[in-house]
């Protein structure tokens, strides 16, 4: 698994790590059941604090893309389809863009609802 981060980016490091994992799930280079590197090992490789990696893994767990198993580490969820990883990543990018452009949460949600309405019709 290849994880790259940009220490100069405004995007938090944990989010950058999680985004790399999401992209690899989306493109099929990570598959359900695969283990991710141990948090300490990945932290050393990326020159970040181990808590940063653990935060990334917790984000992915909350998104139901990873399972954190005592003694086994982080494992890609058996029910983590590539499409879910892609949708989560797209959603996070949309929220960052909406914030940057000054949209309120209500305006952003309305845009998504409107788009869902178009897709049904």
Give a description of the structure.
The chain has 121 residues and is mainly alpha-helical. Helices cover 58% and strands 7% of the residues. The chain has a two-stranded antiparallel sheet with strand order 1-2. β1 (66-69) and β2 (73-76) form a beta hairpin. α1 (13-26) crosses α3 (50-62) and α2 crosses α3. It is globular and about 45 Å long. The termini are far apart. The mean pLDDT is 90.
**Portion of residues within helices:** 55-70%
Largest sheet: 2 strands, antiparallel
Query: Beta-sheet strand percentage?
Result: 5-15%
Beta-strand segment tally: 2
Query: How large, in whole angstroms, is the Cα Rg?
Result: 16 Å
Number of helices: 5
Are there runs of 5+ residues with pLDDT below 50, and where? none
Question: Which sequence of strands runs across the widest sheet?
Answer: 1-2
Mean pLDDT: 90
Query: What is the structural class?
Result: mainly alpha
**Inertia-based shape:** globular
How far the N terminus sits from the C terminus, by CA atoms, comes to 40 Å
H/E topology pattern: HHHEEHH
């Amino acid at each position: 698994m290849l994880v790259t981060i940009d220490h100069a980016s405004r995007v938090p490091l944990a989010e950058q790590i999680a985004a790399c994992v999401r992209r690899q799930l989306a493109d099929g280079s990570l598959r359900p059941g695969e283990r991710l590197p141990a948090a300490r090992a990945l932290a050393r490789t990326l020159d970040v604090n181990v808590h940063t990696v653990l935060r990334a893994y917790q984000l992915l767990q909350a998104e139901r893309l990873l399972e954190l198993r005592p003694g086994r580490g982080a494992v890609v969820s058996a029910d983590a389809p590539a499409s879910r990883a892609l949708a989560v990543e797209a959603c996070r990018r949309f929220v960052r863009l909406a914030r940057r452009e000054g949209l309120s949460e209500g305006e952003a949600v309305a845009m998504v609802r409107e788009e869902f309405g178009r897709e049904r019709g």
